[in-house]
């Protein structure tokens, strides 16, 4: 008989003599640990603090009977295999118990060998359940890595590279399109490194004006500028012994680039208003969705800073480069948001999966996650269908230059095509970013003011956008 290591049996019966008999006779034959209790309440209490593989419980007991015990046990401990004991003449009750989740039942008085055989099968069932759960866990582990999901060659290569990078303490530059998971990669590198017990401080560089970003990064002395009412350590010092993650490093000003270069070279910072530098022990991870080589060419990014940052690099693949991961990502986000929104686990219809597989995903995994989360929240049934998707996922097959435009004068035709392009392009980008102008501008590769000018020129405005602009 194949038994679980340290297999444990819980016996529940209100007859003391039966408990002693069963415990004495079964211990040797089953080669397992046995606990015996005289009532269901005691059994439930014991199950809360101890692990058992099989429970053998009498149906008829004073107070809480075996049926109620079974119901509570299957709710709180579904992996526990329960065998019911019943007196002759209570067969109907035993059959009902099986319908409610009992593995099997045995009638009293019972033959010892028959009971041993039945309990042996019950232990085997529990063993198979444990093996299945372990297998499922291993499959999930193979499909995910540090909150990143996928099995494609490109993403598996990223996982392996992160493991290698984590064993070092040098600066890392993570590149890739918006929404590809650069922040998840940075956090994974930190968690797997020797600095994992230290802080992880994330800084979104474009979100702060230059003067505020500088004071936030390096700190300041009281009185260094107006409203500097007290000393501030700064984020570099807050990250002492850990990692600081500079998100979208390609957007910082030339002045900040120079100061950051000094930090990378000398491992020290100088808070605003202070004459002495302060040594810092932090690992720097930076990311960008910009083409830094092009920015170096047009002299908007320092070449020496680039080489200081790019000691080790990680290029995150776009979702278009790993379409085979889309079904796994869909399932991952369905599970995540069904649980988060307190809804039954939903699934995507085959039609929706095919639509997702054919979509270009300009916003990458973030765009996919946003769409799935909205679909989980808004879909009325357990299956998410195309009509539950709240924005037009299919790419238009319409020609960029409609036939009727070709009959217009060149300048007029050009103006109409450009207006149509700008309206549709900007509207879609805004929709993907929940009408957040700052995030939409970042995805477009434009400055926020430039995107606002396009919006004003083509009257791309509504109440929601106006309220977002006011809030920002």
Automatic annotation (TrEMBL):
Q: Annotated Gene Ontology MF terms?
A: ATP binding; DNA binding
For whether the record's keyword set contains Transport, the answer is: no
Q: What domain of life? A: Bacteria
Q: Which residues carry this modification: 4-aspartylphosphate?
A: 58
Asked if the record carries the keyword 4Fe-4S, the reply is no
- Show the CDD domains listed in the entry: AAA
What Pfam families does UniProt report for this protein, alphabetically?
AAA_lid_14, HTH_8, Response_reg, Sigma54_activat
Q: InterPro entries, per this entry?
A: AAA+_ATPase (IPR003593), AAA_lid_NorR (IPR058031), CheY-like_superfamily (IPR011006), Homeodomain-like_sf (IPR009057), HTH_Fis (IPR002197), P-loop_NTPase (IPR027417), Sig_transdc_resp-reg_receiver (IPR001789), Sigma_54_int (IPR002078)
Query: Response regulatory domain location, by residue?
Result: 8-123
Q: Which residues form the Sigma-54 factor interaction domain?
A: 148-377
Q: Name one GO biological process term.
A: phosphorelay signal transduction system
* Residue ranges that the Swiss-Prot or TrEMBL entry lists as coiled coil: none
**Which key words tag this protein in UniProt?**
ATP-binding, DNA-binding, Nucleotide-binding, Phosphoprotein, Transcription, Transcription regulation, Two-component regulatory system
**What is the protein name stated in its UniProt record?**
Response regulator with CheY-like receiver, AAA-type ATPase, and DNA-binding domains
């Amino acid at each position: 008989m194949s038994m679980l290591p340290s297999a444990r049996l819980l016996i529940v019966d209100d007859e003391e003599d039966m408990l002693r008999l069963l415990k004495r006779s079964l211990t040797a034959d089953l080669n397992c640990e046995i606990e015996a209790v005289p009532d269901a309440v005691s059994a439930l209490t014991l199950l809360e603090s101890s692990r058992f593989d099989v429970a053998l419980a009498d149906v008829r007991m004073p107070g809480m009977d075996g049926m109620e015990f079974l119901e509570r046990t299957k709710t709180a401990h579904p992996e526990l295999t329960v065998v019911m004991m019943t007196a002759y003449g209570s067969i109907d009750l035993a059959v009902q118990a099986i319908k409610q989740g009992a593995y099997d039942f045995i009638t009293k008085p019972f033959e010892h060998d028959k009971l041993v055989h039945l309990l042996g099968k019950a232990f085997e069932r529990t063993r198979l359940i444990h093996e299945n759960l372990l297998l499922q866990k291993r499959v999930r582990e193979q499909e995910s890595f540090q909150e990143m999901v996928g099995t494609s060659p490109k993403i598996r290569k990223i996982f392996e590279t992160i493991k290698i990078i984590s064993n070092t303490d040098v600066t890392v530059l993570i590149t890739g399109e918006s929404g590809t998971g650069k922040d998840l990669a940075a956090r994974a590198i930190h968690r797997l490194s020797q600095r994992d017990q230290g802080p992880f401080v994330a800084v979104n560089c474009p979100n702060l004006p230059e003067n505020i970003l500088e004071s936030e990064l390096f700190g300041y002395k009281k009185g260094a500028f107006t409203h500097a009412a007290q000393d501030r350590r700064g984020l570099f010092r807050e990250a002492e012994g850990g990692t600081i993650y500079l998100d979208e490093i390609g957007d910082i000003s030339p002045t900040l680039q120079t100061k950051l270069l000094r930090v990378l070279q000398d491992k020290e910072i100088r808070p605003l208003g202070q004459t002495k530098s302060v040594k810092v022990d932090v690992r720097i991870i930076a990311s960008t969705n910009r083409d830094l080589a092009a920015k170096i060419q047009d002299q908007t990014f320092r070449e020496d800073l680039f080489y200081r940052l790019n000691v080790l690099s990680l290029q995150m693949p776009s979702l278009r480069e790993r379409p085979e991961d889309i079904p796994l990502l869909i399932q991952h986000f369905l599970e995540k948001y069904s649980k988060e929104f307190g809804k039954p686990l939903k699934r995507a219809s085959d039609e929706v999966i095919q639509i997702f597989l054919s979509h270009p995903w300009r916003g990458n995994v973030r765009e996919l996650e946003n769409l799935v989360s909205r679909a989980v929240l808004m879909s009325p049934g357990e299956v998410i269908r195309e009509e539950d998707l709240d924005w037009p996922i299919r790419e238009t097959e319409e020609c960029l230059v409609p036939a009727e435009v070709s009959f217009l004068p060149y300048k007029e035709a050009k103006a109409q095509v450009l207006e149509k392009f700008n309206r549709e392009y900007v509207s879609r980008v805004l929709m993907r970013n929940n009408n957040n102008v700052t995030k939409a501008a970042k995805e477009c590769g434009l400055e926020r003011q430039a995107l606002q000018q396009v919006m004003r020129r083509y009257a791309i405005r509504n109440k929601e956008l106006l309220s977002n602009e006011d809030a920002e």
